[in-house]
Amino acid sequence: MDWWRIVLVLVVSYLIGSLNISILVSRVFLRVDIRDYGSGNAGSTNAYRVMGKKWAVVVAAGDILKGVVTVLFGYWMMSGAAGGGLGRLLAGLAVILGHVFPVFFKFRGGKGVMTTAAILAVVDWRVCAVVLGVFLVTTLITRWVSLGSVLAALFVPACMYGFHRGEGRETWVYVVLSAVISLLIVFMHRENIGRLIAGTERRFTFKGRAMLDTIKTRTIDIRDKTSTKLKTTTRKLRDKARARSKFRLHHRNSYLARRARRGNRAQNTRRHKRAHVKRARKMRKRHINRMAGI
């Protein structure tokens, strides 16, 4: 067995799985992080609720594509060494781990349901058909996507054993690796299971608008209201400033007028005093001349 092939398959598949399509789409095209909205999960269901139908289709297609590509890569790398079946399952396990714990996004990703479905479709379409049937029936009846995902994941090991029974050692390879994948999916739905038990899990519906569209609409309304209030406040402040300016101008003019009147009075008083002094001097000179007999 060429161990380097196994290591290469695991590493490449994990890195491809770490390219979380939901996070990339939300950041590149919508300038947000989908993990900050809705359930906080970077998967197809939350993408539909947060970003809408168009982007949810893009996310689902990307998750399916990376699952198919990695499984085919694992089969191609190990078809002549350790068996194509082992290579497909190892690649599938690694890409799911990358999707759930992406190294490029701080190990916070999706739950791996769509990628697992793509892997099962390539590994064994019969298992995929049964698991997909369980998922669709459960989801359509209850409208709980999380419950359908958990039940479908639990069916995977049993279906692997049923369809690959009698293949000897390879049977247990299929069963063990598929059981690990199933337990990983169930583990990632632990919060959903808690909400299902508490009766607070949100049901899936095709009605309603995307969360980001609603947020944008509310933001626009808030901006309009804020803009209107700001315009009204600005107009009131401008009117107050104008009234204050007029009052100050009037007060200044009144002050200047009073000062001018005061100055005029003082000037008149000084003129009166000078005239009085002149008269007094004339009268004194006249009196002196009269006394002297001039």
Low-confidence stretches: none
Question: Whole-number average pLDDT?
Answer: 81
The 3D shape can be described as rod-shaped
Structural class: mainly alpha
Span of the ends, CA to CA: 155 Å
- Determine the strand fraction and express it as a percent band: under 5%
Elements, N to C (H/E): HHHHHHHHHHH
Largest sheet: none
Count of strand segments: 0
Count the domains: 2
Description:
This protein is mainly α. It is built from eleven helices and no strands. The radius of gyration is 44 Å and the shape is rod-shaped. The model has no long low-confidence stretch (mean pLDDT 81).
Would you spell out the secondary-structure blueprint of this structure?
Blueprint: H1 3-17, H2 21-29, H3 44-51, H4 53-78, H5 84-100, H6 113-123, H7 125-142, H8 145-163, H9 169-188, H10 190-198, H11 211-292
Structure characteristics:
2 domains, single chain, rod-shaped, mainly alpha, about 290 residues
Brief summary:
The chain has 294 residues and is an all-alpha fold.
